C-alpha cells in the first residue's frame, strides 16, 4: 500500500513539475513574441505592408522576426534604409509587444528621361515605376547631368503655382535651360537660373496675354534671357 502511495505521489509530482515547466515556456515565448505596426509617414506609392514584410524577412530569418529579445533595431533600420525607395526609417518599441516601423518614401520630383530614373528633392535617383504622377521630364546633351543644379531649378520654379502645374519638359544645353509648358506649344529659352523669378513673371504675363490676344498666338520660340523684356518669334525654333 505504501508503495502504491509513493508511486501516486511521484506521478503527481511529475505532472506538477511538467505543468509548471510548460507554463514557464509558454509565458517566456509570449514575452518573446510581438506585433509589427508599419506606418507610412506620407501617402505611399512604391511600398506597402506586404513589400516591407518581405524586406524584413530578407534581412532576418522569419523565426528571428518573431523573437523580441534577439532583434537588433539598428540593423533593421540600416537595412531598410538601403532600399532605393526609402528616404528615412524610424523603428522603436511601442508598449512592450508592438514594434513600430515608420517609413518615409522617396518622393519623385522629376524624371531623367534618358536614364529612366526618378530624382527626388535631395538629387537622389531611383528606378522608375508606373505611377499616376505627372512630373517634369529632363533630358540633356551633356554626358552627365548636374542633378543638383536641375533639382534646385525645379524646386525654385515649384514655389510658383503656375510653374508647378505647367512645367512639362526641361532640356539642358551648355548648362542653360530650355523648357516647355503643358498648355502652350512654344519652346522657351530660360537661360540659367539667374533672375529666375523675374523670368517666371515675364513668362506668366506672356502666357496670360496669349490667351486673350490673337496677335500673340502661333509663336514657336520665347526667349526670357533679356532684361525686362520677352523676345518671341513665329519662325525661329530651338535647335537641339
Brief descriptors of the model:
12 strands; alpha/beta; 35% helix; three-stranded mixed β-sheet; 240 residues; Ubiquitin-like (UB roll); 2 domains; 25% strand; single chain; Rossmann fold
Give a written overview of the molecule.
By secondary structure, this protein is of the alpha/beta class. The chain has two domains: 31-105, Roll (Ubiquitin-like (UB roll)), CATH 3.10.20; 110-233, 3-Layer(aba) Sandwich (Rossmann fold), CATH 3.40.50. 35% of the residues lie in helices and 25% in strands. Strands 6-5-4-7-8-9-10-11-12 form a nine-stranded mixed β-sheet. It has a three-stranded mixed β-sheet with strand order 1-3-2, with helices on one face. It is elongated and about 100 Å long. Mean pLDDT is 81; it is low at 21-31.
Outline the secondary-structure elements.
Layout lengths: L1 H31 L2 E6 L8 H11 L13 H9 L4 E9 L3 E8 L4 E3 L4 E3 L5 E3 L9 E4 L6 H11 L3 H6 E7 L2 E6 L5 E5 L4 H17 L8 E3 L7 E3 L7
Parallel strand pairs: 1-3, 4-7, 7-8, 10-11
Antiparallel strand pairs: 2-3, 4-5, 5-6, 8-9, 9-10, 11-12
Amino acid at each position: 500500500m505504501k508503495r502504491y502511495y509513493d508511486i501516486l505521489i511521484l506521478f503527481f509530482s511529475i505532472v506538477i513539475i511538467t505543468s509548471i515547466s510548460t507554463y514557464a515556456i509558454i509565458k517566456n515565448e509570449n514575452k518573446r513574441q510581438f506585433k509589427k505596426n508599419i506606418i507610412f509617414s506620407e501617402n505611399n506609392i512604391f511600398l506597402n505592408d506586404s513589400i516591407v514584410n518581405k524586406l524584413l524577412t530578407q534581412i532576418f530569418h522569419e523565426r528571428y522576426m518573431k523573437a523580441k529579445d534577439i532583434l537588433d533595431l539598428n540593423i533593421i533600420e540600416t537595412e531598410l534604409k538601403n532600399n532605393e525607395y526609402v528616404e528615412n526609417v524610424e523603428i522603436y518599441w511601442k508598449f512592450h509587444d508592438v514594434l513600430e516601423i515608420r517609413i518615409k518614401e522617396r518622393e519623385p520630383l522629376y524624371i531623367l528621361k534618358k536614364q529612366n530614373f526618378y530624382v527626388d528633392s535631395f538629387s537622389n535617383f531611383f528606378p522608375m515605376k508606373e505611377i499616376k504622377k505627372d512630373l517634369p521630364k529632363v533630358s540633356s546633351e551633356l554626358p552627365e547631368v548636374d542633378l543638383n543644379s536641375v533639382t534646385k531649378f525645379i524646386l525654385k520654379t515649384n514655389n510658383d503655382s503656375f510653374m508647378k502645374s505647367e512645367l512639362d519638359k526641361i532640356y539642358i544645353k551648355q548648362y542653360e535651360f530650355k523648357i516647355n509648358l503643358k498648355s502652350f506649344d512654344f519652346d522657351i529659352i530660360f537661360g540659367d537660373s539667374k533672375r529666375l523669378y523675374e523670368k517666371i513673371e515675364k513668362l506668366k504675363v506672356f502666357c496670360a496675354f496669349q490667351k486673350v490676344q490673337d496677335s500673340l498666338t502661333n509663336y514657336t520660340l520665347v526667349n526670357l534671357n533679356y532684361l525686362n523684356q520677352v523676345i518671341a518669334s513665329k519662325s525661329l525654333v530651338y535647335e537641339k
